[in-house]
Amino acid sequence: MSTQTVSASTAADVARVTTQTLLEMRDEETPVAMLTAYDYTSARILDEAGVDVLLVGDSASNVMAGHETTLPITLDQMIYHAQCVVRGVRRALVVVDLPFGAYQGSSREALRSAIRVMKETGAHAVKLEGGEDVVASVERIIDAGIPVMGHLGLTPQSIYKFGTYKVRAREDEEAEAIRRDVVRLEEAGVFGVVLEKIPAALAAELTASVSVPTIGIGAGAGCSGQVLVTHDLLGLTKDFNPRFVRHYADLATTITESVGRYVSDVRAGAFPSSEESY
Ligand code: KIV
Predict the structure, then answer these.
(1) In sequence order, what E strands does 136-224 have?
(2) 42-61: pLDDT as tens digits
(3) CB-based contacts of 70: which residues, under 8 Å, 6+ apart?
(4) Model confidence pLDDT, tens digit, residues 14-26
(5) Is the CB of 59 under 6 A from ligand 1?
(6) 3-class SS at 14?
(7) Interior CA angle at 16 toward 10 and 18, to 5°?
(8) Which of 112, 169, 174, 252 matches a 20 to 30 Å C-alpha distance to 183?
(9) CB-ligand 1 contact for 155 (6 Å cutoff)
């Protein structure tokens, strides 16, 4: 595997994670750890913690901007978030979501959006949602030399078509469509595919059926790697508790308590002390 331990490394000796690294990890059955990032400070911490892939997800629309869905975020806003993330990263592969409205019009529009992301952010790849319907765009972007990650199953940009965030592909017809889509994306040349909220058995079957890594979110342990929205993992999104999220921290409580103590200290005249003053 062409990665190194990051902790004691300097900028010069850190081996970057590339799309090739992910393929090698898949072949060696080393699970890929992917998380979302939207800003410099968090990206730096996540990168130093050893996350392999940082996704500048359009979930920024939810967790950064407070929108109900991912639909409102714009390409310009995604580019801003990606620029911030790239500045904080030394090792991880940075993948940027093409947002709703930036690629559905035509493969020409998709390519133009992907080129903007690559030129203006310094990120390493783009991700877009869909199967057969986006294959022409995927091929055109890859032909231009830009690595593409696919995204199947629950695709949040189509939420108004689905009408619900429930598990996808429980029925044979939809499962069969995803089986076809994952192969079409692989043939088109994607370097990986996110599988969101589909039955674990189907995700494991899809993972075995293609030669590129699958990254699951709510898709069980049989994928080549896992992704979560960092805000969910850290317990910042208190009202969002689907069963696929594991909370590794309760930062909302930590922040509330810390800020509460700060407010009390300020009110009591206990901050700043003479040691904290000039
Ligand atoms: O935008 C996002 O956070 C994503 C992940 C859920 C895979 O696409």
Answers:
(1) 148-153, 192-196, 214-217
(2) 999 999 999 999 999 999 99
(3) 58, 59, 61, 62, 99, 100, 156, 157, 159
(4) 899 999 999 999 9
(5) yes
(6) coil
(7) 175
(8) 112
(9) no
